Amino acid sequence: MIVYQSTKDGFLSDVLNNEIDTKIKAAFIRHLGRSTSQNEVLSWTNSMMHMSNVLSDPEIATDAGISIEFQIPLTSKRIDFVITGLNEEHNQQVIIVELKQWSKAQLTEKEAMVRTHFQHGATDTVHPSYQAWSYAALIESYNRTVQDENISLIPCAYLHNYTPDDVITNTFYDFHINKAPVFLRPDAVKLRNFIKKYVKYGDDRDIMYKIENGRLRPSKQLADSVASMIAGNREFIMIDDQKEVYETALLMAQRATNEKKQVLIVEGGPGTGKSVVAINLLTELTKRGLVAKYVSKNAAPRAVYITKLTGKFKRTNIDNMFGGTGSYWDCDKNTFDALIVDEAHRLNLKSGLYQNQGDE
Q: What pLDDT digit, counting tens, does each position of 230-265 carry?
């Protein structure tokens, strides 16, 4: 789902006429069926003016596609700003821009995490470069159109209020900054040149149309990556009853249809290997081209298994295969082929801070 779409010329016109925030808000209400906070509206007003300045260059095609607030399938996450077009060789390009209003941040000792101030105080949050890169990785891992048509996704972050310091560009974050460069307050021209490097010709919004309507399918690279992590890892070897449950679950997943779901409840006390079965299922279902996700209410078990799989603390694109229980109440029907829920007895009827999200 894309909240706002236009060409570069249409976007520049909406900003110039001071209509961009009202148009985004109206589209937001139309698509999501709800309004949003005044702070978010103000952020649109501010950030879109900065992006308009960046894009006001005749060398960036007038019919390059502009998409704002693109909701990534499989998640409730939205990409702030997307520019699409063709490069010099006429290859399809998608530039993902994570926009931030931040003016300062603090270092943390957590990988890919910074500390910054929000409305309710200082909070640890992911580095903008990691955020942009992870969004690109998620789309690459699950969007068949991107995979089949070799569409290039180029992530970056733009902190247009942030004066350079030794925090946001600290070498501690180099791993992700190298994957998604971060542009700061003085870097509008640098960001413009970055965009011009990848978008030479316009696409009149065609690329995002194909991505938005693309079929979901885990990429072979993702499946092979996870399979290689499990191979030879003694912690994930199944024995006896575990193998029986595993094969039963695989068969049920293959037989399931949109009209006839399948549910398997696996009981057993601590240490009986339920989680071992879950990780093996996640791997095999992904290898078979099914969209699957490991779900747990608490973050701790997800973090443990991600670390065990990767064998390191670097965040990778397999993070997207693990999620919390409150992420699915507004998903489209039949988005997932299989959800593997750990400690299902801990599930709540409703999600959200006030337990107000979800159907009765």
A: 775 666 777 777 888 888 999 999 899 988 999 999
Whole-angstrom Cα distance, residue 161 to residue 165?
12
Which domains occur in the chain, in start order? 2-212 (3.40.91), 220-346 (no CATH)
Distance of CA 239 to the CA centre of its chain: 35
Whether the per-residue pLDDT at 354 is higher than 50: the answer is no
Please say whether the beta carbons of 136 and 153 come within 8 A: yes
Residue type for 275, please? S
Q: Is residue 183 scored above 70 in pLDDT?
A: yes
Q: What tens digit of pLDDT does each residue of 115-161 get?
A: 998 877 888 989 999 999 989 988 988 899 999 999 999 999 999 99
pTM: 0.77
Mean pLDDT, the chain, as a whole number? 87
